[in-house]
Amino acid sequence: MSTPVTFGQGSLSRAAALVHTLVTVEALLLIAASPGLAALLLIGPDPANLPLAAVCLLPLGPATAAALYALHHRDRDLADLHPARTYWRGWRLNALPSLRLWAPLLAWLTVIAFTLTHFSATGLPGWWAVLLAAIGAASLLWGAHALVLTALFAFRARDTARLAAYFLFRRGRATLGAASLLVLTAAGTAVLTEALPALLAAPLLLSLLHSSRPVIAETQEDFTV
Question: Of 13, 78, 134, 171, which has fewest CB within 10 angstroms of its CB?
């Protein structure tokens, strides 16, 4: 005899719970990052504004870490949903730890972007531009691993940085998954709208968590007590 399914435990209820969580986390992420995003809309696209743009993106790091935390700890039961409470708990736990990695990453990416936008003035051979672009892409992938680790584990910043670099090569499929999301987001932004990453942040981060499952599992097994 089959076990009866109670309210909130069926497949339709689980789907509704997922949609509710995604919408809530998306809204809260935009609220948490809104001071910087609003300022970002006011500055022009001039490459000289790249350092200012990096400052505007600082709130995005803690907001993203909190979203990853909320999505990882989401409830599957429609009758017991608290995504907003979980999000703000994740923000309180991860705001400072994520900034310790997010701020240096933004500074490093700003240096690379500024160099590439003024590359003709450097006098360097063309292959240097390709190398810098590759380093920038690798830095973004490292940052994806670092944010996931920061959101879900309480390591010191330097230990998180080392683990993120370790998993960059150790878990190639997870890194490839993050790279695929990066390429998809960049292509969608170029073809459709610059607002696409903000509008689809929660589904993209849920996909990042899904592709990062080997990283999360190995960290829990080998690097935590």
Answer: 134
Positive or negative: CA dihedral 131, 132, 136, 139: positive
Say how many C-beta atoms besides its own lie within 10 A of residue 118's C-beta. Answer: 12
For the question of whether the overall pTM of this predicted structure is more than 0.85, the answer is yes
**How far is the C-alpha of 143 from the C-alpha of 158, rounded, in Å?**
13
